[in-house]
Amino acid sequence: MDYPLRFVDQLRPHLKALRKKRGLTQAQAGALVGVSQARIAEIEANPGAVGLEHLAKLLSALGASFYLRDDAPPSSGPVYAMEEGPEYTSSQDTDVKVPEGWTTRKMNGGSVLVTLSAQEPDAAAAQSSDEDGAAQVGSTAPGALLRQLQALNPGKDVKPTSRRSFVIRPKADSW
What we know:
Helices cover 31% and strands 19% of the residues. By secondary structure, it is of the alpha+beta class. It folds into 2 domains: 8-84, Orthogonal Bundle (434 Repressor (Amino-terminal Domain)); 102-170, no CATH class. Helix 2 crosses helix 3. The longest helix has 11 residues, at 142-152. Residues 120-175 are annotated as: Disordered.
């Protein structure tokens, strides 16, 4: 869907709506693009104060893009528009390894949001390993969960977004 905009500040309600539509907190959106929750809050509050490169990276993580169109009369100036991207898929066919009891959700740019299921946290904490030697959830402490995900996914960047959610993505330069 296109949203014709004349000023970058008109993105404000659209950025927040896109993030909420994807079911992401500001911290989770920040982890996807490699910035803090506070920076996402600043961008949502004043998108005109951020560079186009950063804005494009955030919009890409939210499944949207923007472009300039030259179909307006010459005297009206540039028109900014946002286009919604494809819906996120919630499947288990990701290239990350997670212990039993975790859910995965593919995001844009090769990122995967992994969340420890809230069901039966005591049972998950009691598990250690199965017959195949696959690692299971040993502790629900955030530091232990982070170390476990890092050990299962060497060569990938693992960042916490909350006590039970993490973003796993290929290691790359961040902005």
